[in-house]
């Protein structure tokens, strides 16, 4: 590259040209890094080991509790395909009966989590397919499945995005787990890993049973049942299962009552 006129003719001129170029490029790299950090979802910055170590602490016990509940979620309904929103490291996938299911999708925003899921459950072969999809901005990328499992993820995507995602899957059954807190301050349980979750405040939505039931009713799903599991720290996990009552045709909004 030729230096502009003002730099030419001396060693000093050439050196200052190179210096200016280097400085501009460094500035550009720094700006791109800031932009990347700004658009990264905080979940993409949490390591899987911090997440799993925190969730499985005896004082938190959420990984173990959800694992048991997922066995029930996979076994209860007469379906052959399921999609797990916010699959994280694949907790509970060991309960998938490979004779019953022909397709399981694992969806998450964090590619590293998904790489771990693929490795851990490689024995599931083509039945398991992991897809990096941001549920808040890319619901159109979701595949179809008969059952949606959404455990502790609605809180991070919000009800509006969740409704769009469910509709896109066309699922007949939706089984969700939400966390109900005893106090407003500490929705993340205390632990040595607590600070890994600092960024989550920015994407956290408060979801309770009633707001979830109303949101699901709005898109034509009726509540089948709820089940509550108490946690050691006074919080509780509530599982809410829904069945599609009305087929809402997303494009033309035409209603076709099924039952
Ligand atoms: C609390 S964890 C879910 C727990 C998991 N279902 C289990 O049983 O251990 C929330 C998960 O949702 C994912 N997630 C958060 N926001 C998301 C988004 N916008 N799109 C897709 N996945 C998201 C996170 O990366 C994380 O894996």
Mean pLDDT: 88
Beta-strand share of residues: 15-25%
Name the strands of the widest sheet in spatial order.
3-2-1-4-5-7-6
As for the number of domains, it is: 2
The run of helices and strands is HHHEEHEEHEHEEEE
CATH class of the largest domain: Alpha Beta
Summarize, please.
The chain has 259 residues and is an alpha/beta fold. It contains six helices and nine strands. Residues 254-259 have low confidence and may be disordered.
Description:
34% of the residues lie in helices and 21% in strands. It contains six helices and nine strands. The strands form two sheets. A seven-stranded mixed β-sheet has the order 3-2-1-4-5-7-6, sandwiched between helices. The chain has a two-stranded antiparallel sheet with strand order 8-9. Helix 5 links the parallel strand 4 (147-151) and strand 5 (173-180). The N and C termini lie far apart (72 Å). The relative contact order is 0.13. S-adenosylmethionine binds at residues 41, 43, 63, 66, 86, 88, 91-92, 107-110, 113, 134-136, 151-153, 156-157. The site of S-adenosylmethionine (SAM) has 21 residues, from helix 3, strand 2 and helix 5.
Descriptors:
single chain, alpha/beta, 2 domains, 34% helix, disordered C terminus, binds S-adenosylmethionine
Layout of SSEs?
Layout: H1 11-39, H2 48-56, H3 62-76, E1 81-85, E2 103-108, H4 111-120, E3 128-132, E4 147-151, H5 154-169, E5 173-180, H6 209-218, E6 221-230, E7 236-244, E8 246-248, E9 255-257
This protein binds S-adenosylmethionine.
